[in-house]
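I hope you will forgive my troubling you with a question about protein structure. The matter concerns a single protein, recorded as an amino acid sequence and a row of backbone structure tokens. Please examine both parts with care and let me know of anything in them that strikes you as inconsistent. Here, with my thanks, is the record as I have it:
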Amino acid sequence: MDVLVLLVIVMTGVTTIVTVESRASRLDKRIRGLERKLDVLLDHWGLEAGDAALAEVVALARAGNDVAAIRKYREVTGAGLLEAKQAVDRMSR
């Protein structure tokens, strides 16, 4: 009887471990996909991950404050007026 109980406990543990590992694997795959999508968006906007100043530019552009966004973009990147306007236009889409 004790062997049967021990066997049930071991099988339950193994099943739980396999289930958790499977879910972790699926979540890892989803995270990698989301990171790829984020990289595409950052490339499209001309941003780098973790760049808080440029994130502020995106927020200004999306809020419709293009003049402030262009000014901030030029301040952060040193870009010219035309380049900054084009970048902000891409961000506000």
Remarks:
- The radius of gyration is 25 Å.
- The chain has four helices and no strands.
- The chain has a mean pLDDT of 87.
